[in-house]
Q: What sequence folds into this?
């Protein structure tokens, strides 16, 4: 059980800049940037997350159409992923006025398991047509086709991961682990059993 109070959890969320309203996409819509790696899922309660969004984020998104840039890079189930049921409960709490204004979700570095999960369960779990608003973005360079580059901050580790993907393209398909390799190890192990990506959505 977390030793944090709901208030200190919210302060931590604010400090880590997990959620940041910043910049616009190419259609002029305000952007909510979410960096999944920054979310301290082990210590922050779902209730604190809901309250933070309700007080600090949702009021700024009620009036006009907006888009979400969700950075999934380096999200690991045990570290920074709150779980599907938690995400569903947070999504269900989004006010209708905000949900109706959400027009696009740019999902950066989705990984194979995230794609499979959303393709299988996304339509069932997320009401309001959210699944139809998802746009998978496999590289940062492709994000600039949709988002004004100079107006949004993308953390350095995201660019580093992008560079890894250029040299190890099988990571995109879950056929190679996205954990750091030992220097000198081959990019793809010659084995009848593929090494599936450890980036996990559930």
A:
């Amino acid at each position: 059980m977390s030793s944090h109070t709901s208030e200190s959890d919210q302060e931590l969320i604010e400090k880590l800049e997990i959620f940041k309203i910043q910049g616009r996409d190419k259609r002029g819509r305000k952007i909510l940037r979410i960096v999944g790696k920054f979310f301290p899922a082990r210590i922050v309660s779902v209730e604190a997350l809901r309250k933070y969004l309700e007080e600090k984020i949702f009021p700024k998104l009620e009036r006009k159409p907006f888009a979400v840039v969700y950075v999934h890079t380096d999200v690991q189930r045990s570290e920074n992923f709150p779980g599907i049921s938690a995400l569903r409960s947070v999504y269900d709490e989004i006010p209708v006025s905000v949900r109706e204004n959400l027009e696009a979700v740019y999902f950066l570095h989705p990984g194979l398991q995230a794609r499979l999960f959303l393709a299988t369960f996304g339509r069932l779990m997320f009401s309001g047509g959210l699944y139809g608003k998802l746009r998978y973005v496999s590289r940062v360079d492709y994000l600039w086709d949709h988002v004004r580059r100079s107006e949004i901050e993308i953390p350095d580790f995201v660019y580093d991961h992008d560079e890894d993907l250029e040299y190890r393209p099988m990571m995109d398909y879950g056929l190679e682990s996205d954990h750091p390799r030992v220097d000198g190890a081959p990019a793809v192990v010659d084995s009848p059993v593929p090494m599936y990506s450890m980036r996990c959505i559930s």
